[in-house]
């Protein structure tokens, strides 16, 4: 049960992170000038890559959810297993989107260099395509939120 609670909590953290970017960070950055956007996004992306985020949320959600599936496969299974498996599939979708879309976009804007030395900040921002980044982040937000719901139902089902 501890692993399943950890899966639910870490998935909730990820839903919160993606949700915060969707309804606060990106709308706030959208209202800034090009230099502020590029510099702030670079700083946010560098800051988020840390052990607390990577282990306590991003990778933790995958590991604990996968472990929940394995434990339910070898244990009581039932309806709880189906909900845990659904959460795992949803989070695998999030991982694929992150690796295929968001991370390459993040890396490209960081590769543009120091905003004080960039001569075409508007071009860097345009090539970044913040609308595309935000759309895919919204998909991650919805998927992780749905995964939290699945894991909460898993807890209820497993508690019976």
TrEMBL record:
Lineage: superkingdom: Bacteria
Pfam families attached to this UniProt entry: Anthrone_oxy
The name this protein goes by in its record: Membrane protein
Coiled-coil intervals: none
Keywords: Membrane, Transmembrane, Transmembrane helix
Annotated transmembrane regions: 6-26, 47-74, 80-101, 137-156
């Amino acid at each position: 049960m501890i692993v399943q609670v950890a899966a639910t909590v870490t998935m909730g953290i990820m839903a919160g992170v993606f949700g915060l970017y969707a309804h606060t960070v990106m709308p706030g950055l959208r209202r800034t000038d090009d230099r502020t956007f590029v510099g702030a996004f670079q700083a946010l992306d560098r800051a988020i890559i840390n052990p607390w985020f990577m282990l306590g949320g991003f990778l933790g959600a995958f590991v604990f959810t996968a472990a929940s599936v394995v434990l339910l496969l070898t244990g009581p299974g039932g309806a709880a297993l189906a909900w845990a498996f659904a959460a795992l599939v949803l989070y695998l979708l999030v991982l694929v989107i992150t690796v295929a879309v968001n991370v390459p976009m993040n890396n490209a804007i960081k590769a543009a260099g120091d905003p004080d030395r960039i001569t075409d900040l508007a071009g860097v921002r345009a090539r970044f395509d913040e609308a595309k980044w935000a759309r895919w982040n919204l998909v991650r937000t919805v998927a992780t939120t749905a995964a939290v719901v699945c894991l909460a139902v898993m807890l209820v089902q497993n508690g019976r």
